[in-house]
Write a structure and sequence with these properties.
By secondary structure, this protein is an alpha/beta fold. Helices cover 31% and strands 24% of the residues. Strand 3 and strand 4 form a beta hairpin. Helix 1 packs across helix 3 and helix 4 packs across helix 7. The relative contact order is 0.21. Bound molecules: hypoxanthine.
Length: 270
């Protein structure tokens, strides 16, 4: 199904929903926010060919149209990761569809491991830049000059300023940092984490980077927030687990929610 067809299918499901201004992707353990969408129309990904039939626990698998903090949104509760398909283009159709529905901004959230001891589990982190450590790129195979996407200020400086302002108003510490993408699904080795630190990473994770590249290709402005769920491999002497990711995301969820709603309230008028 083409992006145009997907947009029509979604408009038929939700004829009265306002055109979304902001697309929101909810990462591991953060799907709860989808329940707070007002005037919600929920469309299972199963009814949207080309949308991820997400199969990672902690990810839900529905597109929710409506309003969050008054702002018209299209919320993806659950993403698909490159590691599920061996394909960094896994989120291409959803992102193109969010753009087709009218969104001008994409807000991405993820769970991530922290390389900084002073940014512990259950903290939010604002992503300022990324390192693509995967060797994959979702634009490989595209034709035309549009594929040479500029990634300077890919993480929109004005949106980051909004996020910092909202965090300050709410009294939430919001460190900014560089997110390094590892393909996963295995966690990193301690040696890889030492390498990531030398390279300038503050956090590591298995998503978001290909989505940012696709979003910039489509001209969407991007804001990305990590929920830190653990100190990265080798930093604590304990093994890492997906269960810990989900548990710590749940612990930090209330703060993360307040932050996200505050940001959405502001950028709805931007
Ligand atoms: N590494 C990669 N992805 C993650 C981590 C991690 O430590 N924590 C949550 N997602």
């Amino acid at each position: 199904m083409s992006v145009r067809d997907l947009v029509s299918v979604i408009r038929e499901w939700a004829p009265a929903a306002p055109a979304p201004r902001v697309g929101v992707v909810l990462g591991s353990g953060l799907s709860g926010l989808a329940d707070e969408v007002a005037e919600a129309v929920r469309i299972p990904y199963a009814d949207l060919p080309g949308f991820p039939q997400a199969a990672v626990s902690g990810h839900r698998g529905e597109l929710v149209l409506g309003r969050l903090a008054g702002t018209p949104v299209a919320v993806m509760a659950g993403r698909v990761h490159a590691y599920e398909r061996g394909d960094p283009r896994a989120m291409e159709m959803p992102i193109a569809t969010l753009k087709g529905l009218g969104a001008g901004i994409l807000v991405l959230t993820n769970a991530a491991g922290s390389l900084r001891e002073e940014v512990p589990p259950a903290s939010p982190m604002l992503i300022a830049d990324h390192i693509n450590g995967s060797g994959m790129n979702p634009l490989i195979g595209r034709e035309g000059d549009g594929r040479f996407v500029d990634l300077v200020d890919a993480y929109d400086p004005a949106l980051r300023a909004v996020a910092r302002g909202v965090a300050a108003d709410l009294g939430i510490a919001l460190p900014e940092g560089v997110y390094m993408w590892f393909s996963g699904p295995s966690f990193e080795t301690p040696a890889e984490i030492r390498m990531a630190r030398v390279l300038g990473a503050d956090a590591v994770g298995m998503s978001t980077v290909p989505e940012v590249i696709l979003a910039r290709y489509h001209g969407l402005r991007v804001l990305a927030l990590s929920m830190i769920t653990n100190l990265a491999a080798g930093m604590t002497g304990r093994p890492l687990s997906h269960q810990e990711t989900k548990d710590e995301a749940a612990r930090g969820a209330a703060r993360f929610r307040d932050l996200l709603l505050g940001i959405l309230a502001e950028i709805g008028d931007a």
